[in-house]
Design brief:
8 strands, alpha+beta, 19% helix, 3 helices, binds cobalt (II) ion, binds ligand LZKTLF4L, 2,3-Dihydroxybiphenyl 1,2-Dioxygenase, domain 1
């Protein structure tokens, strides 16, 4: 069902500080830094050189009360989730529910670049998974 890895997300304390490594040292140019109030985060996508390649998403929690802030406090900076692109998010949601996978969404949520659902790490061998449907490109 998944087509490709869309992004690998890294949780950081401060995006600007993290960019001193990812942009200035590694040479990845971020697209705009954006606030996602519904998720209580700021994020920046870092595309690789090849068009259509998988990206890195830097995530900074914006509220000290959020589950992401608690995760950062407990585990420190590092891997947060992997996002797999799917063709049809409604079908993916139905399939995951019917297979008994612990899905964190009853309906797809609005993600930065499409519609997404999250699968709880307890059902995926310890990794938070995001499944994402991106808008179809006009032919
Ligand atoms: C959508 C916008 C953007 C995009 O790509 O477009 C993003 O990706 S924003 C990303 C931020 N949004 C989310 O992460 C949404 C889904 N996440 C959640 O709902 C929570 O963070 C959740 C449920 C994963 C964890 O919340 P909480 O700690 O309150 O839940 P539980 O008590 O059920 O579970 C705690 C248990 O899970 C471990 N945990 C938490 N986060 C992760 C993680 N990212 N990877 C692996 N494990 C994780 C946590 O350490 C606890 O384990 P324990 O053994 O009990 O210590
Ligand atoms: Co993501």
């Amino acid at each position: 069902m998944p087509r490709r890895i869309d992004h690998v997300a890294i949780i950081v304390r401060n995006i600007e500080q993290a960019l001193t490594f990812y942009r200035d040292t590694l040479g990845l140019q971020p697209r705009a830094i954006q606030d996602v109030p519904s998720e209580q985060v700021r994020i920046a996508f870092l595309p690789p050189g090849d068009p259509g390649g998988s990206e890195i998403e830097l995530i900074e929690p914006t509220s000290p009360d959020s589950s992401l802030a608690r995760f950062l406090e407990k585990r420190g900076e590092g891997m947060h989730h992997i996002c797999l692109e799917v063709e049809d998010i409604d079908a993916a949601l139905q399939e995951m529910q019917s297979q008994g996978v612990p899905v964190l969404d009853r309906e797809p949520r609005t993600a930065a670049e499409g519609r997404a659902i999250f699968l709880h790490p307890k059902g995926t061998h310890g990794v938070l998974l995001e499944l994402l449907e991106k808008p179809h490109e006009p032919a």
